[in-house]
Amino acid sequence: MRSVIVLILTMTTLYSCRPKKPATTSGFREKLSDYGFFKGALSQLSPEAHVHRYDLATPLFTDYAVKDRFIALPEGGSMQYRDSGALQFPDGTFIIKNFSYRDTAGDKVLIETRLLHKDPQDGKWKVMNYLWNEAQTEAEKWIAGKQVPVTLLDDNRQRVSTLYQVPNTNDCKRCHSSNGTLLPIGPKARNLHYGKGEQLLQWASAGILKGMPDISQVPALPVWTDSLHYSVPQRARAYLDVNCAHCHTKGGDADNTGLFLEYGQQQAAHLGILKGPVSAGNGAGGLDFDIVPGNAAASILAYRMNSTEPGTAMPELARTLVHKEGVALIVQWIEQMKKER
Fold it and tell me: 188: closest CA among 270, 246, 234?
């Protein structure tokens, strides 16, 4: 009898030490640690074997936040490459994005973690936010949004203070909605393909990405900071694609504006060139056109990107600071444009 009890206790201990599997229902868990995405100290974000880190060629700007991104696939699941360059994720997938800032000592401080979950019960994507505690030991489910006072170092290590805006779940849905359907934004093949495509090639080799053609056939989005390999127009268009086009596209939240900023967009009017605003109101600053070639100071696009005022600032969500480097690139792009005759 004693040996049986010892065996039961041993098995119970071993079972309790196993990493928890991701939730398989539409109900999100109360704490980030409940999912078993990470091993060791939670704040170290050290992924378990089924959780795969990824980086983007051109990322979305969020108040100079440092972002750690991961994809957690269900057991035996794999991503599927589509001819359009989109990735199809299996039901049960989690896309995990962690937001941190660098404090004045240069240390990383976690603020929030956002989850996209492809519900296996209906195949639809669902969203949830998790807010980190001051001790950096846990992040708890947070639906309502919150303003968090932070003092951070920007990309030039300049000290900046702001009220970082943790979005509510409805804000997330606005940006991630396409024709009323919730979809991932960042992890597209073109934005995962940079350098020599090592990231995508590793996934294909590991069997978690299937159907990918030769890497030379996979489209690649320019790296917006890489002035050595890409021109100003290429970098500016990539920046607008990632930071604006999830709303400014057909079926997006800003569909009614007629301003469509996808990287592949070719129509001058849709790009805003000598196009009057549709719904900007006072946010247009009294200017007449979204883009005036050769004149950034007269262009609504640059004006709104350079503002933090509610009703004027664009993007209107996900930032409280002006992205100085991003605005400088867009200004340079507009100034270099040939003026229309």
Answer: 246
